Amino acid sequence: MSLVRSQTERGVATLTLDSPSNRNALSTALIEELLAALAAAEADGTVRVVVLSHTGPVFCSGADLKETAAAFGTGKPPINRLGEVLTAIWEGRKPVVARVAGPARAGGLGLIAAADLAVCTLDATFAFSEVRIGVIPAVISATVLPRLSPRAAAELFLTGDTFDGARAAEVGLVTAAVDAASLDAAVAGYVAALVRGAPGALAGTRQLLRRRKSDTFRDDVAELTELSVQYFGSSEGVEGILAFREKRDPNWIPDGA
Predict the structure, then answer these.
(1) Residue 16 pLDDT > 90
(2) Which Pfam families match (predicted)?
(3) What is the pLDDT of residues 47-88, one digit of tens each?
(4) Could you give the CA distance from residue 48 to residue 39 in angstroms, rounded to a whole number?
(5) pTM
């Protein structure tokens, strides 16, 4: 039975964690299927946006602790592969939107933070619960720390306290928190906006958001100017400007979008 379901429609690949019996825990099997699904979406030229969703009441409970306990002494717990998933989401060319309709813990928060945009319900709960079982949120800090202020990160990492969707939005873990009835519409709104962006420009903007600045302001501006000129002269830039002047959709927008 598949633990990650994939469906593509009108340029959107929806990857659904489908292991509700263990609260969509990050087992080795689920991680491998998620990696395969992400790779397939990345390779599919028709896919413009990836939505990460879930079945059951829990988005993701973190590492599969039953499998982790069984792996003591082998050096191969599921957490070994989590970094691969975070990297695939963080470094992919296509925007990722997380749809969070229920609680997330530990490693599940790493997935949410890796996504470009994340929408949760107001009553969803979150916790960096690692310290309470004697471990640290090491791997997920790669995606989580860029999202949180230092004070919020210190509080939430060190206390392990549970917080709700409104606080998650306040500290930057998610983009927006909405009531449950509005979740799908909010996700659809972000997706509709994203598919109107040019694929190459979206990929470039993702890199821009993650780039390291040059040593001096002057060098930084020079590098960014060169980058801007490159995109204005690209085939997408030429098409986008022409479409704007001709008051039509550019050729990269999927039919029906």
Answers:
(1) yes
(2) ECH_1 (PF00378)
(3) 999 999 999 999 999 999 888 887 776 767 778 899 999 999
(4) 13
(5) 0.94
DSSP letter for each residue of the chain: --SEEEEEETTEEEEEE--GGGTT-B-HHHHHHHHHHHHHHHH-TT--EEEEEESSS-SB-SB-HHHHHHTTTTT--THHHHHHHHHHHHH-SS-EEEEE-S-EETHHHHHHHHSSEEEEETT-EEE--GGGGT---TTTHHHHTTTS-HHHHHHHHHH---EEHHHHHHHTSSSEEE-GGGHHHHHHHHHHHHTTS-HHHHHHHHHHHHPPPPSSHHHHHHHHHHHHHHHHTSHHHHHHHHHHHTTS--TTSPTT-
Give the gyration radius of the chain's Cα atoms. 19
Q: Strands 176-178 and 117-121, how do they pair?
A: parallel
The pLDDT-based confidence of 256 (bands split at 50, 70, 90) is low
Cα angle 168, 187, 52; round to 5: 80
- For the chain, what is the mean pLDDT? 95
